[in-house]
RNA sequence: GGGGAUGUAGCUCAGUUGGUUAGAGCGCCGCCCUGUCAAGGCGGAGGUCGCGAGUUCGAGUCUCGUCAUUCCCGCCA
């Protein structure tokens, strides 16, 4: 971490310091200064002791001479890693021969006259002075030590700059930052709620908000016109590398607006936020329809930084005698494929890819190598005519040596989704993602509804407050006024124009099978608000954790959160979730069926 | 709910077809050392091989279970 360096304002002189460690650069040679921080490293020569002192700004070398300050030299000999010290001394220029070019203060050192040891440290469970790999569970258990190492802290600094920029830009556009409650009404829709039992009202429960969605709509009914919040949201679902049970959204909403207004303000914010991370983009961002994204990339959050696009081979194989393709196509299904290019894939590799697509719902994977004579080396080659092979090769734009990977499925989205996942895997496996390049794209023209086979019902693709676009009596073809913003294959945000009349809102609830009584029970307060003159309004939410993860180039969302949860939702530092006293449970009028958890 | 991977010294890891006393680097402790900056030299301590069963003459190694961490599927309007 020697090369990390932060320029900070001059600290107020007090009992501990008058200068930051790297602030010494700004001070004249010979000046008496005082610094405080941690003993980062020690180099004890017996007669001469060097201590690298570290504070947030960076590192400065302290030298203890026995003949300059005998007491300080003796004390310095007892220092160990991570002891907290305050040192007074004279700033001196190093001889040319001993300049350290690796740190900004390398041409200086502080010749100690006095040292005070403010706190001793036990030997840390892992080395704070090195950036080598340490098991994440251990880092999270001692996150305060991990933060000293300087792998996470730069991300937190970036996150700070991002939120400051968000507040500045939105303030310049007349947005009001308003806080909404964290103890809210359960609205069993979407994700599983975190529930909080009420002590005062026996049998009553709060839910932690999955998002401030309904509150922000009420703020629009309340005439605030332009609102934003950097809001904590909670969803009790299983975790992933890019999902935490509590996470942060930039939530915003505007009145009397159309899609273009929300998109424009979002682009203005993102352009400046990205610039904070040294990423410079042009506005307006690219747009792509949902159908095109699904067709070409098999995903509604496509990564546009590389090719490997999905092709449709329905027409090529329309009259095929090959049973698998024939039955899928006559049943209304689809055959789609990726030209993976010239890849050396062994039989074992192909088996692994087959298992991979099966894991994403596909029945199997057809592979074919294009050979010199134009034929295919493929398990299915013998079932296909020469014309079909030639046509498919042409449709794929394939050349000799290319590998074609195809999936046939009765459901278009299954085939597309499996190939979309395969596409991302191949891109990583063959290192096709250009370093340092970023692609932002708006996905628009979403369907309003999708049919849930399990529930045998229409469910909203976004949420039931999204304004529909089209004929309300034709759910299968009903569009929505929703839009997602996608960066490098990650959905970093999404939003919509909302429904602002009770008639349309009730109609949508009807279609998705929520009857009047149930709607009244769940969303009655919103429906009532819509009766009193709700302005046309819309907005969007950006996943701040994901956005900062991308900007920081971090591996995991956990690397941009000071105190993240583990993949099982536990906090390794505090031990949460933990058991509680019987009395606390009784006070809340609840009964636990689980064995007591002590830690 | 399902599948994969990992678990050996404080940390990061190695440990062959099951075979005597489980190793390395860093860290830690002691001594030496006045220009190092990953300081150096010499010496030393440190292990419930995640936990529990089983197979075997013998298990870090094989089997089963379990726990923890992690990645993925389902889930996440």
Structure description:
There is one protein chain. With 599 residues, this protein is an alpha+beta fold. The chain folds into three domains: 22-119, Nucleic acid-binding proteins (OB fold (Dihydrolipoamide Acetyltransferase, E2P), Beta Barrel); 155-287 and 482-501 and 515-560, BirA Bifunctional Protein, domain 2, CATH 3.30.930.10; 306-429, GAD-like domain (Gyrase A, domain 2). It is 27% helix and 24% strand. It is globular. The structure holds one RNA strand of 77 nucleotides.
In short:
The protein is of the alpha+beta class and 599 residues long. Helices cover 27% and strands 24% of the residues.
Describe the secondary-structure layout.
Layout: E1 32-44, E2 49-55, E3 58-64, H1 70-76, E4 84-93, E5 108-119, H2 136-141, H3 143-149, H4 153-172, E6 176-177, E7 195-197, E8 205-207, H5 213-221, E9 226-234, E10 246-255, H6 259-276, E11 286-289, H7 290-297, E12 310-312, H8 323-330, E13 334-341, H9 347-359, E14 366-370, E15 376-377, H10 386-395, E16 403-409, H11 412-429, E17 440-444, E18 449-452, E19 457-460, E20 468-469, E21 479-480, E22 482-487, E23 490-497, H12 502-511, H13 516-530, E24 537-543, H14 544-552, H15 582-587
Parallel strand pairs: 3-5, 6-9, 11-17
Antiparallel strand pairs: 1-2, 1-4, 2-3, 4-5, 7-8, 9-10, 10-24, 12-13, 13-16, 14-15, 14-16, 17-22, 18-19, 20-21, 22-23, 23-24
This protein binds one RNA strand of 77 nucleotides through strand 1, strand 2 and helix 2.
């Amino acid at each position: 971490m020697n090369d990390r360096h932060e320029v900070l304002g001059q600290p107020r002189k007090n009992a501990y310091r008058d200068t930051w460690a790297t602030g010494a650069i700004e001070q004249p040679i010979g000046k008496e200064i005082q610094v405080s921080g941690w003993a980062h490293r020690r180099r004890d020569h017996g007669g001469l002791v060097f201590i690298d002192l570290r504070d947030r700004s960076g590192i400065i070398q302290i030298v203890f001479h026995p003949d300059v300050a005998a007491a300080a030299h003796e004390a310095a000999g007892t220092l160990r890693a991570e002891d907290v010290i305050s040192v007074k001394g004279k700033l001196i220029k190093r001889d040319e021969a001993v300049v350290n070019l690796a740190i900004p203060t390398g041409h200086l050192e502080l010749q100690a006259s006095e040292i005070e040891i403010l706190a001793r440290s036990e030997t840390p469970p892992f080395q704070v002075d090195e950036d080598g790999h340490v098991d994440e569970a251990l880092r999270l258990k001692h996150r305060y030590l991990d933060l000293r190492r300087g792998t996470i802290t730069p991300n937190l600094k970036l996150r700070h700059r991002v939120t400051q920029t968000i507040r500045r830009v939105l303030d310049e556009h007349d947005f009001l930052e308003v806080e909404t409650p964290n103890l809210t009404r359960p609205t069993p829709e979407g994700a599983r709620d975190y529930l909080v039992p009420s002590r005062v009202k026996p049998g009553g429960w709060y839910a932690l908000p999955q998002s401030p969605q309904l509150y922000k709509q009420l703020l629009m009914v309340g005439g605030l016109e332009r609102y934003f919040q950097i809001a904590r949201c909670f969803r009790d679902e299983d975790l992933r590398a890019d999902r935490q049970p509590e996470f942060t959204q930039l939530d915003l909403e505007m009145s009397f607006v159309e899609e273009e207004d929300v998109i424009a303000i979002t682009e203005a914010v993102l352009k400046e936020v990205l610039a904070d991370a040294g990423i410079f983009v042009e506005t307006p961002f690219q747009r792509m329809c949902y159908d095109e994204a699904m067709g070409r990339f098999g995903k509604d959050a496509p990564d546009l930084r590389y090719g490997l696009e999905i092709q449709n081979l329905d027409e090529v194989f329309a009259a095929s005698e090959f049973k698998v393709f024939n039955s899928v196509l006559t049943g209304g299904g689809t055959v789609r494929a990726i030209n993976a290019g010239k890849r050396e894939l062994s039989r074992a590799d192909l088996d692994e890819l087959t298992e991979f697509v099966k894991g994403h719902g596909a029945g199997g994977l057809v592979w074919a190598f294009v050979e010199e004579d134009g034929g295919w080396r493929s398990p299915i080659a013998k079932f296909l005519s020469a014309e079909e092979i030639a046509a498919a090769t042409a449709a794929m734009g394939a050349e000799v040596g290319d590998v074609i990977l195809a999936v046939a499925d009765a459901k278009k989205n299954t085939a597309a989704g499996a190939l979309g996942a395969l596409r991302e895997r191949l891109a990583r496996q063959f290192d096709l993602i250009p370093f340092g390049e970023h692609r932002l794209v708006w996905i628009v023209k979403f369907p309003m509804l999708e049919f849930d086979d399990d529930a045998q019902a229409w469910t909203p693709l976004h949420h039931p407050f999204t304004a529909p676009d089209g004929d309300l009596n034709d759910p299968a073809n009903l569009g929505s006024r929703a839009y997602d913003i996608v960066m490098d294959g990650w959905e970093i945000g999404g939003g919509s124009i909302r429904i602002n009349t009770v008639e349309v809102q009730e109609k949508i609830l009807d279609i998705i099978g929520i009857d009047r009584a149930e709607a009244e029970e769940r969303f009655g307060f919103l429906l009532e608000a819509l009766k009193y003159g709700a302005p046309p309004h819309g907005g969007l939410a950006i996943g701040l954790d994901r956005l900062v993860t991308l900007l920081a180039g971090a591996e995991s969302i956990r690397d941009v959160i000071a105190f993240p949860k583990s993949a099982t939702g536990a906090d390794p530092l505090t031990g949460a979730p933990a058991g509680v006293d019987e009395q606390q449970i009784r006070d809340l009028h609840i009964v636990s069926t689980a064995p007591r958890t002590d830690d």
